[in-house]
Design goal:
- By secondary structure, the protein is α/β, with parallel strands linked by helices.
- The chain folds into 3 domains: 214 residues, 3-Layer(bba) Sandwich (FAD/NAD(P)-binding domain), CATH 3.50.50; 122 residues, FAD/NAD(P)-binding domain, CATH 3.50.50; 107 residues, Enolase-like, domain 1.
- The chain is built from 13 helices and 22 strands.
- Strands 1, 2, 3, 4, 5, 6 and 17 form a 7-stranded mixed sheet that branches. Strands 8-15-9-10-11 form a 5-stranded parallel sheet. It has a 5-stranded antiparallel sheet with strand order 18-19-22-21-20, with helices on both faces.
- A hairpin with a 4-residue loop joins strand 12 and strand 13.
- 47% of the residues are buried.
Length: 468
């Protein structure tokens, strides 16, 4: 078989690239090493974790808020097997959706491990060891990433787990240590905290979600502490020792060598980051060398040093985000046929799907200070919103950072209900280089959460917020 383009990996970047290639008239194949399509995001990442986040939030609200709303319940309890079953059904429905899209767009799907024989020939080895080869003019590498687990953490997939295993615990744990205060650790930690687990977060740095605006870090930590989550910042985990029914975790303070903390808990969730997954790709057969972080180097067209071979998503530099990979998949497909697409990397939003949610786009306040850019901040608390009071979602704020001289919006950072959806308004305005005044003069429906964005924009223009 001969193809115009072959995509290795069927995650959001890979399958979206395949669809766009097919739409543009290219004969397209996609290679997936697992038995289902969708990659990490759909099968053991974004989608299943959000399913559990929603389920746990429903339980938490029923347990903590329903009585205030005038809803009385008896014998409330968590049915963990059913929660996991629903999560699996959500994943399966999405699997079927991607399969349908491949058929609809006449994309040939090959199941097996793809590797380079040479730049125009891909070998596909099935789980049973059978192999076939296909010819291709172009290749897009979209093989994603895997969790980082140091050897001394004794990862056994039973008591010492990653996000993959955390999605399938069928009994609510009594206790859990989460190593890492980043997005994955906090999202899954919040799932189990809502269900009643004692969650302890150990973070090496001096704040959680360190890549986001510091105000967001503070707001989220305050909310999660109210949920019962315990935080130990500036601590390094030195020992992780699992047994049959427990795991012992020891952490060392970075500020005091004599200070050590130790916990005996049901699970230890390792969430210290992810690494690009390029194992067994045969990159050496085509002359592609990885950089110092294990990533595939690419140029401004996302092409490797080998003409005709491109790479997107988690295997290249930049944020490991599904929507970033999707944008890159479309970008490469359109580049291959001679179009002139663009990606504004600075305006790709970041989101944490805890509750309250956290979302940000553009520069953080810390980055503006470091760059010496003159700016004016505007903040507005969710607590002052009528909609937030009605829904009892009072935690959080919207922060708008505008240029002090031109008033152009340079960054927007949100902690609060539906922040993940609200950030799209900021992205749209910033794509068109809108000012804070522009945002402030847009009519926002009342009562909505997005009124906080309008009020923060008013605050940034000349401290003109109306409702505080």
């Amino acid at each position: 078989m001969t193809y115009d383009v072959t995509i290795i990996g069927s995650g959001p970047g890979g399958y979206v690239a395949a669809i766009r290639c097919a739409q543009l008239g290219l004969k397209t194949a996609i290679v997936e090493r697992y038995s289902v399509l969708g990659g990490t995001c759909l099968n053991v990442g974004c989608i299943p974790s959000k399913a559990l986040l929603d389920s746990s939030e429903h339980y938490h609200n029923a347990h903590k808020k329903f009585q205030t709303h005038g809803i009385d319940l008896k014998d409330l309890k968590v049915n963990m097997p059913q929660m996991i079953k629903r999560k699996n059904e959500v994943v399966l429905d999405n699997n079927k959706g991607v399969e349908f899209l491949m058929k609809k767009n006449k994309i040939d799907v090959f199941y097996g491990h793809g590797s380079f024989v040479h730049k125009n020939r891909i070998k596909i080895t099935s789980s049973s060891g059978n192999a076939e080869e296909i010819e291709t003019s172009k290749v897009i590498i979209a093989t994603g990433s895997k969790p980082i687990v140091p050897a001394n953490f004794n990862y056994d997939k039973k008591r010492v787990i990653t996000s993959t295993e955390a999605l399938n615990i069928e009994k609510v744990p009594g206790s859990m240590v989460v190593i890492g205060g980043g997005v994955i650790g906090l999202e899954l930690g919040s799932v189990y905290a809502r269900l009643g687990t004692k969650v302890i977060v150990v973070e090496f740095l001096d704040r959680i979600i360190a890549g986001m605006d510091a105000d967001c870090s503070r707001e989220l930590m305050k909310s999660m502490k109210n949920l019962g989550v315990e935080f130990h910042l500036r601590h390094a985990v030195t020992e992780v020792t699992p047994s049959k029914s427990k795991v012992t975790v020891v952490a060392q303070s970075r500020d005091d060598d004599s200070k050590k903390l130790s916990w005996d808990v049901d699970y230890c969730l390792v969430a210290i980051g992810r690494r690009p997954y390029t194992d067994g790709l045969g990159l050496e057969n085509v002359g592609i060398a990885l950089d110092e972080k294990g990533r595939i180097p690419v140029d401004e067209h996302l092409q490797t040093n080998v003409p005709g071979i491109y790479a997107i998503g988690d295997v290249i530099q930049g944020a490991m985000l599904a929507h970033k990979a999707e944008e890159e998949g479309v970008f490469v497909a359109e580049t291959i046929v001679g179009q002139k697409p663009h990606i504004h990397y600075h305006l790709i939003p970041s989101v944490v799907y805890t509750w309250p949610e956290v979302a940000g786009v553009g520069y953080t306040e810390e980055e503006l200070k470091e760059k010496g850019v003159p700016y004016k901040p505007g903040k507005f608390p969710f607590r002052a919103l009528g909609r937030a009071r009605a829904s009892m979602d009072l935690d959080g704020m919207v922060k708008v950072l505008a240029h002090k001289e031109t008033d152009e919006i340079l960054g927007v950072h949100i902690v609060g209900a539906r922040a993940a959806d609200m950030i799209a308004e900021a992205v749209a305005l910033m794509e068109f280089r809108a000012s804070a005044e522009d945002a402030a003069r847009m009519s926002h429906a009342h009562p909505t959460y997005t009124e906080a964005f309008k009020e923060a924009s008013l605050a940034a223009t000349a401290n003109r917020a109306l409702h505080i």
